[in-house]
């Protein structure tokens, strides 16, 4: 179980931001310096079907990072 700030979570506009936040907290709690994933694993985790990392970065990672930076 990972403890997260409920008010922060409820303020997210995107389900991808919430999932990204969950993954970052999991990585942080496990003291991993970075997160590695295959394209298939990432699509499964985010319930998407992107064919390349460019689209994932542009449509999931960058918007989620922007929203997290605003909070």
Which features would summarize this protein structure in a list?
4 helices; single chain; 71 residues; mainly alpha; globular
Short description:
This protein is mainly α. It has helices spanning 6-11, 15-29, 39-46, 53-70.
Written description of the protein model:
By secondary structure, this protein is mainly α. Helices cover 66% and strands 0% of the residues. It is built from four helices and no strands. The protein has helices spanning 6-11, 15-29, 39-46, 53-70. Helix 2 (15-29) packs across helix 4. It is globular. 7% of the residues are buried.
Order of helices and strands: HHHH
Helix content: 55-70%
Task: Determine the N-to-C terminus distance.
Answer: 23 Å
Total of DSSP H or I helical runs spanning 4+ residues: 4
Average pLDDT over all residues: 84
SSE class: mainly alpha
Instruction: Describe the sheet with the most strands.
Output: none
Shape: globular
> What is the beta-strand fraction?
under 5%
Radius of gyration equals: 12 Å
SS elements, strand count: 0
Unreliably modeled segments: none
Architecture blueprint of SSEs:
Blueprint (H helix, E strand, L loop, with lengths): L5 H6 L3 H15 L9 H8 L6 H18 L1
């Amino acid at each position: 179980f990972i403890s997260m700030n409920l008010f922060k979570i409820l303020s997210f506009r995107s389900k991808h931001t919430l999932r990204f936040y969950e993954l970052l907290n999991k990585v942080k709690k496990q003291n991993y310096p970075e997160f590695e994933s295959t394209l298939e694993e990432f699509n499964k985790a985010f319930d998407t079907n992107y064919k390349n990392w460019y689209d994932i970065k542009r449509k999931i990672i960058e918007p989620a990072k922007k929203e997290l930076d605003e909070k």
